[in-house]
Structure prediction request, 247 residues.
Amino acid sequence: MIHHIEGGYANTYLIEGTEGLMAVDVGSNLAAEKIRDVLRKMGDTAVHKLRLITATHFHIDHVGGIERLKEFFPESEVFFFTRVKKYLTGEEKLAIPPLSRWLTGLIPVVTRIGHQYRNYRQSFASRKVGIPLPFLRSCISLGYEPRCELDESSEIPFLPGWRLIETPGHTPDSVCFYNPKEKVLLSGDTILNMEGTGELNRFCCSIHDIENSFKKISSFPVKSIYPGHGTPITGVDDPLKRVKLFK
Ligand SMILES: [Zn+2]
Prediction:
Protein backbone atom coordinates (compact mmCIF):
# COMPACT_ATOMS: atom_id res chain seq x y z
CA MET A 1 0.00 0.00 0.00
CA ILE A 2 1.36 3.39 -1.02
CA HIS A 3 0.07 6.66 0.41
CA HIS A 4 0.58 9.72 -1.78
CA ILE A 5 1.13 12.77 0.41
CA GLU A 6 0.98 16.19 -1.19
CA GLY A 7 2.46 19.13 0.59
CA GLY A 8 5.85 19.78 -0.85
CA TYR A 9 6.94 20.71 -4.29
CA ALA A 10 7.81 17.06 -4.87
CA ASN A 11 5.54 14.10 -4.16
CA THR A 12 5.99 12.38 -0.83
CA TYR A 13 5.12 8.71 -0.44
CA LEU A 14 4.53 6.55 2.57
CA ILE A 15 5.04 2.85 1.89
CA GLU A 16 3.41 0.24 4.10
CA GLY A 17 5.65 -2.79 4.50
CA THR A 18 5.14 -5.96 6.52
CA GLU A 19 7.43 -4.72 9.30
CA GLY A 20 6.66 -1.02 9.30
CA LEU A 21 6.53 2.08 7.15
CA MET A 22 8.99 3.95 5.00
CA ALA A 23 8.63 7.64 4.06
CA VAL A 24 10.15 8.62 0.73
CA ASP A 25 10.96 12.19 -0.38
CA VAL A 26 9.85 14.25 2.60
CA GLY A 27 10.54 17.55 0.87
CA SER A 28 8.95 20.05 3.22
CA ASN A 29 7.88 20.61 6.80
CA LEU A 30 4.27 20.47 5.62
CA ALA A 31 4.82 17.01 4.14
CA ALA A 32 6.30 15.93 7.49
CA GLU A 33 3.25 17.23 9.34
CA LYS A 34 0.91 15.44 6.95
CA ILE A 35 2.75 12.14 7.50
CA ARG A 36 2.43 12.62 11.24
CA ASP A 37 -1.34 13.10 10.81
CA VAL A 38 -1.70 10.01 8.59
CA LEU A 39 0.23 7.90 11.11
CA ARG A 40 -1.83 9.18 14.02
CA LYS A 41 -4.96 7.98 12.24
CA MET A 42 -3.42 4.53 11.65
CA GLY A 43 -2.91 3.99 15.38
CA ASP A 44 0.11 2.77 17.23
CA THR A 45 0.56 -0.81 16.05
CA ALA A 46 3.94 -2.34 15.18
CA VAL A 47 3.27 -2.49 11.42
CA HIS A 48 2.23 1.14 11.45
CA LYS A 49 5.46 2.41 12.93
CA LEU A 50 7.56 4.73 10.84
CA ARG A 51 10.84 2.79 10.60
CA LEU A 52 12.63 4.49 7.79
CA ILE A 53 12.94 7.83 6.03
CA THR A 54 14.70 8.03 2.70
CA ALA A 55 14.89 10.01 -0.54
CA THR A 56 15.26 9.35 -4.25
CA HIS A 57 18.09 11.94 -4.37
CA PHE A 58 19.55 14.73 -2.30
CA HIS A 59 17.67 17.82 -3.52
CA ILE A 60 15.82 20.15 -1.16
CA ASP A 61 12.37 19.37 -2.54
CA HIS A 62 12.99 15.71 -1.63
CA VAL A 63 14.82 16.06 1.71
CA GLY A 64 13.86 19.46 3.18
CA GLY A 65 11.24 18.06 5.59
CA ILE A 66 13.21 15.09 6.96
CA GLU A 67 14.45 16.98 9.98
CA ARG A 68 10.92 17.89 11.04
CA LEU A 69 9.76 14.31 10.53
CA LYS A 70 12.65 13.04 12.67
CA GLU A 71 11.47 15.38 15.44
CA PHE A 72 8.03 13.77 15.31
CA PHE A 73 9.43 10.21 15.10
CA PRO A 74 12.86 10.20 16.75
CA GLU A 75 13.03 6.40 16.72
CA SER A 76 12.84 6.26 12.91
CA GLU A 77 16.08 6.07 10.96
CA VAL A 78 17.21 8.06 7.93
CA PHE A 79 18.85 5.92 5.26
CA PHE A 80 20.23 7.30 1.99
CA PHE A 81 21.87 5.79 -1.05
CA THR A 82 25.62 5.31 -0.42
CA ARG A 83 26.55 8.01 -2.92
CA VAL A 84 24.87 10.77 -0.89
CA LYS A 85 27.75 10.45 1.58
CA LYS A 86 30.00 12.28 -0.88
CA TYR A 87 27.82 15.39 -0.60
CA LEU A 88 27.60 15.20 3.16
CA THR A 89 31.35 14.85 3.65
CA GLY A 90 32.01 17.64 1.14
CA GLU A 91 33.90 15.29 -1.17
CA GLU A 92 31.52 16.33 -3.96
CA LYS A 93 29.37 19.40 -4.51
CA LEU A 94 25.67 18.83 -4.99
CA ALA A 95 24.87 17.90 -8.58
CA ILE A 96 23.21 20.61 -10.66
CA PRO A 97 21.85 20.17 -14.17
CA PRO A 98 23.43 22.58 -16.68
CA LEU A 99 21.74 25.99 -16.95
CA SER A 100 20.55 25.33 -20.50
CA ARG A 101 18.23 22.61 -19.17
CA TRP A 102 16.63 24.83 -16.56
CA LEU A 103 14.46 26.44 -19.24
CA THR A 104 13.46 23.25 -21.04
CA GLY A 105 13.30 21.02 -17.99
CA LEU A 106 12.64 22.85 -14.77
CA ILE A 107 10.41 25.77 -15.70
CA PRO A 108 7.66 23.60 -17.30
CA VAL A 109 7.51 21.49 -14.14
CA VAL A 110 7.31 24.53 -11.86
CA THR A 111 4.64 26.29 -13.85
CA ARG A 112 2.48 23.41 -15.04
CA ILE A 113 0.12 23.40 -12.11
CA GLY A 114 -0.95 26.55 -10.26
CA HIS A 115 -0.70 25.10 -6.76
CA GLN A 116 2.85 23.97 -7.46
CA TYR A 117 4.03 27.47 -6.72
CA ARG A 118 2.66 27.29 -3.18
CA ASN A 119 4.26 23.87 -2.76
CA TYR A 120 7.51 25.26 -4.06
CA ARG A 121 7.42 27.95 -1.38
CA GLN A 122 6.70 25.23 1.19
CA SER A 123 9.87 23.41 0.17
CA PHE A 124 12.01 26.48 0.52
CA ALA A 125 10.47 27.32 3.87
CA SER A 126 11.86 24.01 5.12
CA ARG A 127 15.37 22.95 6.07
CA LYS A 128 17.94 24.56 3.76
CA VAL A 129 19.72 21.52 2.45
CA GLY A 130 20.12 19.99 -0.97
CA ILE A 131 19.49 23.21 -2.84
CA PRO A 132 20.33 22.89 -6.52
CA LEU A 133 21.48 26.49 -6.99
CA PRO A 134 25.15 27.19 -7.69
CA PHE A 135 25.59 29.62 -4.80
CA LEU A 136 23.73 27.49 -2.25
CA ARG A 137 24.79 23.98 -3.05
CA SER A 138 27.38 23.81 -0.31
CA CYS A 139 24.69 24.68 2.23
CA ILE A 140 24.56 21.26 3.85
CA SER A 141 24.06 20.84 7.55
CA LEU A 142 21.70 18.25 8.88
CA GLY A 143 20.05 18.05 12.26
CA TYR A 144 20.10 14.24 12.11
CA GLU A 145 22.61 11.49 11.38
CA PRO A 146 21.71 9.72 8.16
CA ARG A 147 23.10 6.29 7.30
CA CYS A 148 24.29 6.33 3.67
CA GLU A 149 24.11 2.57 3.36
CA LEU A 150 21.46 1.75 0.77
CA ASP A 151 22.56 0.25 -2.52
CA GLU A 152 21.47 -2.36 -5.04
CA SER A 153 23.06 -5.27 -3.20
CA SER A 154 20.43 -5.71 -0.50
CA GLU A 155 16.77 -5.20 0.25
CA ILE A 156 15.64 -2.09 2.09
CA PRO A 157 15.78 -2.60 5.88
CA PHE A 158 12.31 -3.19 7.42
CA LEU A 159 10.75 -3.25 3.94
CA PRO A 160 11.09 -6.84 2.68
CA GLY A 161 10.45 -7.02 -1.06
CA TRP A 162 11.58 -3.46 -1.74
CA ARG A 163 14.87 -2.64 -3.39
CA LEU A 164 16.79 0.38 -4.53
CA ILE A 165 17.66 0.76 -8.21
CA GLU A 166 20.50 3.10 -9.14
CA THR A 167 19.20 5.42 -11.86
CA PRO A 168 21.71 8.25 -12.40
CA GLY A 169 20.81 11.01 -14.85
CA HIS A 170 18.76 13.70 -13.12
CA THR A 171 21.66 13.64 -10.63
CA PRO A 172 24.41 11.07 -10.07
CA ASP A 173 22.75 10.04 -6.78
CA SER A 174 19.27 9.51 -8.25
CA VAL A 175 17.59 6.22 -7.40
CA CYS A 176 14.22 4.53 -7.81
CA PHE A 177 12.55 2.21 -5.33
CA TYR A 178 11.02 -0.95 -6.74
CA ASN A 179 8.92 -3.83 -5.53
CA PRO A 180 9.06 -6.69 -8.08
CA LYS A 181 6.24 -8.68 -6.47
CA GLU A 182 3.81 -5.77 -6.46
CA LYS A 183 5.32 -4.36 -9.68
CA VAL A 184 5.45 -0.89 -8.19
CA LEU A 185 8.07 1.70 -9.09
CA LEU A 186 8.77 4.92 -7.21
CA SER A 187 10.56 6.73 -9.98
CA GLY A 188 11.83 9.86 -8.19
CA ASP A 189 12.99 12.52 -10.64
CA THR A 190 13.91 9.96 -13.30
CA ILE A 191 10.35 9.65 -14.63
CA LEU A 192 7.92 12.52 -13.94
CA ASN A 193 4.27 12.75 -14.92
CA MET A 194 3.28 16.30 -15.71
CA GLU A 195 1.89 15.39 -19.13
CA GLY A 196 -0.38 12.40 -18.56
CA THR A 197 1.52 9.27 -19.52
CA GLY A 198 4.82 9.93 -17.79
CA GLU A 199 7.96 11.44 -19.26
CA LEU A 200 11.68 11.06 -18.83
CA ASN A 201 12.93 14.11 -16.90
CA ARG A 202 14.53 16.72 -19.16
CA PHE A 203 15.94 18.55 -16.15
CA CYS A 204 18.96 16.36 -15.74
CA CYS A 205 22.72 16.39 -15.31
CA SER A 206 23.30 13.74 -17.95
CA ILE A 207 21.01 12.87 -20.86
CA HIS A 208 23.16 9.85 -21.60
CA ASP A 209 22.89 8.52 -18.06
CA ILE A 210 19.15 9.08 -17.70
CA GLU A 211 18.47 7.32 -21.00
CA ASN A 212 20.55 4.37 -19.84
CA SER A 213 18.76 4.37 -16.50
CA PHE A 214 15.43 4.24 -18.31
CA LYS A 215 16.65 1.30 -20.41
CA LYS A 216 17.59 -0.46 -17.21
CA ILE A 217 14.21 -0.03 -15.52
CA SER A 218 12.21 -0.65 -18.68
CA SER A 219 13.18 -4.32 -18.47
CA PHE A 220 11.35 -4.63 -15.12
CA PRO A 221 7.69 -5.61 -14.91
CA VAL A 222 5.86 -2.50 -13.67
CA LYS A 223 2.13 -1.92 -13.13
CA SER A 224 2.24 1.41 -11.27
CA ILE A 225 4.60 4.37 -11.40
CA TYR A 226 4.78 6.86 -8.55
CA PRO A 227 6.77 9.82 -9.90
CA GLY A 228 8.69 12.47 -7.96
CA HIS A 229 6.56 15.21 -9.54
CA GLY A 230 3.13 14.96 -11.17
CA THR A 231 0.36 12.40 -10.94
CA PRO A 232 0.87 8.73 -10.05
CA ILE A 233 0.17 6.32 -12.92
CA THR A 234 -1.89 3.31 -11.91
CA GLY A 235 -4.40 1.01 -13.57
CA VAL A 236 -2.88 0.97 -17.07
CA ASP A 237 -1.11 -1.90 -18.78
CA ASP A 238 2.62 -1.58 -19.10
CA PRO A 239 2.93 2.11 -18.12
CA LEU A 240 6.67 2.18 -18.83
CA LYS A 241 5.91 1.63 -22.53
CA ARG A 242 3.89 4.87 -22.59
CA VAL A 243 6.57 7.03 -20.99
CA LYS A 244 7.68 9.84 -23.32
CA LEU A 245 11.36 9.69 -24.14
CA PHE A 246 13.61 12.34 -25.67
CA LYS A 247 13.47 12.73 -29.43
ZN1 LIG B 1 15.78 16.87 -8.07
Notes: The first strand starts at residue 2 and ends at 5. Helices lie at 29-42, 60-63, 66-72, 84-88, 100-111, 116-124, 207-218.
